[in-house]
Write a structure and sequence with these properties.
This is Antibiotic ABC transporter ATP-binding protein. The protein has 606 residues and is α/β, with parallel strands linked by helices. 63% of the residues lie in helices and 10% in strands. The two termini are 65 Å apart.
């Protein structure tokens, strides 16, 4: 229930709807009970078993409520039935119909108001989840399957609505129904009601035992759903590779094993859930049967009128519906607990990469970026060791070396996607851990090897950093990035949708859009992480021209695989196993006849 309490914190902004729901449910329960009670005078008229009362009774308080209502009904039927039996019967039936109408009106209003609360809570949880996901560090998603995160944000949140939040409808309505009904039953026969009260806790205990393992079973179901959703997401992303390597059968087997586990877990969960209805109904019938035996004896012994007994049995049977609903709700709590735990796990995840109190705002990059004795490890193995480098404003520094030498890690650290293990990175003399993330990243534009584009228009993708950018600004950025030539030929120009991950475009076109996005941001520091390594020769030439346009008057950190693209850099830093082994201009490094010269020669031969 702890998770349920935490989820309910989201209901605070909507508490007025909760209050209105409670008020409506009070009237719903009241009129529902009165509808059953109104059956008694109808049966008295039908069986002509009305005690004659000629004087109108007076109200003497709640303790005398039963006698007052009985005497009032007897007085009314005595005075009216003597004149017209049919008229009396019609009047009482009208009362029952009106009571039933009022009950259902208030039932609808209760549902109407609780809808705002349920859907409002659902919306706020989703919004908080999305905001949390966008702010969590990259490292978090390196350890999690994307499909699992998607399931937590969709299926688990839906489960919270269908299990936890549905209880909000029951937590007042059904208990009130039971309370009002039991009150009426007590008025009719305290002895019979005592018999009922013995069986209700016993039934609740049996039902709770049946649903004991629901939480753990629901967890298995949601986790497995996350697993096969991840497989599906990876399959859609890697269809070319799967088909190219004839791996369809292998992937199918993996997917089918997951769905088979999901099938088994879902069956076990559903079997237990399905027992709630039949178990509660059977136990209810046992109570009703006991009431028939015990109440029948009272009727035979003259301790209870027949009409009262029939009305009492109607009330008793009516109490089964809310009792069954509460039994199912208890199952819902256990099932929803598992989903709430998974959702709250994300919401409670601590973000270690965040602004310090009174973080420094860097409004404009002015001097230099410095790496001071930097060390970093993704897990146990260090990928950077005692790395020190200064990049003055306006200079271009290229990082080269074999794969795994730590080049891309520099880009991840300077943007604070990860935090350094030892040492520090500073911008204009400020440790970037002391600088606000927003102002730090405002100073930087990033172009990666993989062109990350969104299923939207060219304009939206290019103007990602500035939603208020004009069409003219977007077109100017495209021209600088050598992208306007092909964008202008698209069916709707900059307002053409480029498809999922930009797949309507070629690799070179996608990369030039990524460069245009960096151009429009107009940040003073440009980070190019192997921006041309995946391109053909013609696309590379166009992209390289675009990059040279962008790099003018900017500080650039270029992580390069193709050495031909960085020969004009002010400084080339050669890395190996996380350390700097050589640095200098292209000519200086060639003259050294060292590692850089060997790399150049190998690429020339290739």
């Amino acid at each position: 229930m702890n998770y349920f309490k935490e989820i309910l914190q989201y209901a605070r902004p909507y508490r007025r709807y909760g209050v209105l729901n409670i008020i409506c449910n009070i009237f719903y329960a009241l009129f529902g009970t009165l509808t059953f009670i109104a059956l008694m005078p109808v049966m008295k008229v039908l069986f002509q078993n009305t005690e004659r009362v000629t004087d109108k009774p007076t109200w003497n308080g709640l303790l005398d409520a039963k006698d007052y209502l009985e005497n009032y009904v007897n007085w009314y039927t005595t005075t009216v039935v003597d004149q017209d039996q049919e008229q009396a019967l019609i009047a009482m039936i009208i009362v029952i119909v009106v009571l039933a109408l009022l009950k259902n009106i208030f039932g609808y209003l209760g549902m109407y108001f609780i809808t705002f609360l349920r859907n409002g809570v659902l919306r706020d949880i989703r919004n908080d989840l999305y905001e949390k996901i966008t702010h969590l560090p990259i490292a978090y998603f390196s350890e999690k399957r994307k499909g699992d995160v998607i399931v937590r944000s969709s299926s688990d949140v839906e489960k919270i609505q269908t299990s936890f939040l549905s209880i909000l409808e029951l937590v007042v309505k059904e208990p009130l129904n039971i309370i009002f009904t039991l009150g009426a039953m007590l008025l009719i026969s305290p002895a019979l009601t005592g018999f009922v009260l013995v069986f209700i806790p016993l039934s609740g205990f049996i039902i709770s035992k049946i649903g004991k393992k629901l939480k753990s079973q629901s967890t298995y179901v949601q986790e497995e759903q996350g697993y096969f959703t991840s497989l599906l997401e990876e399959t859609l992303s890697g269809l070319k590779v799967i088909k190219g390597f004839n791996a369809e059968t292998r992937l199918n087997e993996t997917f089918q094993k997951s769905t088979h586990r999901f099938y088994k877990y879902s069956n076990a969960l559903q079997f237990r859930k399905s027992m709630a209805g039949p178990a509660s109904e059977f136990l209810g019938i046992c109570v009703i049967s006991g009431l028939f035996w015990f109440g029948g004896k009272m009727v035979f012994g003259g301790d209870l009128n027949g009409e009262y007994f029939v009305s009492y049995m109607a009330l008793a049977y009516g109490i089964l519906t809310p009792a069954k609903a509460i039994a199912k709700a208890s199952y819902g709590v256990k099932e929803g607990n598992a989903s709430a735990e998974r959702v709250l796990e994300i919401l409670h995840t601590e973000n270690h990469i965040k602004d310090k109190d009174n973080a420094v705002e860097v409004s404009a990059f002015a001097k230099a970026v410095q790496f001071n004795n930097l060390s970093f490890a993704y897990e146990d193995e260090e990928v950077l060791k005692d790395f020190s480098l200064e990049i003055p404003k306006g200079s271009t520094v290229a990082l080269v070396g074999q794969s795994g030498s730590g080049k891309s890690t520099i880009a991840n650290l300077v943007t604070r996607f990860y935090d350094v293990s030892k040492g520090s990175i500073s911008i204009d003399g400020h440790d970037i851990k002391d600088v606000s993330l927003k102002s730090l990243r405002n100073q930087m534009a990033l172009v990666t090897q993989d062109s990350i584009l969104f299923n939207d228009t060219v304009a939206v993708n290019v103007a990602l950093s500035n939603k208020n950018a004009t069409d003219e600004e977007v077109i100017e950025a495209l021209k600088i990035a050598n992208a306007w030539e092909f964008v202008s030929q698209l069916p709707q120009g900059i307002h053409t949708n480029i498809g999922d991950s930009g797949n309507k475009l070629s690799g070179g076109q996608k990369q030039r859009l990524s460069i245009a996005r960096a151009v429009l941001k107009n940040a003073p520091i440009l980070i190019l992480d192997e921006a041309t390594s995946a391109l053909d020769t013609e696309s590379e030439r166009l992209v390289q021209e675009a990059l040279e346009n962008v790099m003018k008057n900017r500080t650039s950190i270029v992580i390069a695989h193709r050495l031909s693209t960085i020969q004009k850099a002010d400084k080339i830093v050669v890395m190996s196993k996380g350390k700097i082994v050589e640095q200098g201009t292209h000519e200086e490094l060639i003259a050294l006849q060292g590692i850089y010269n060997n790399l150049v020669n190998m690429q020339s031969l290739a």
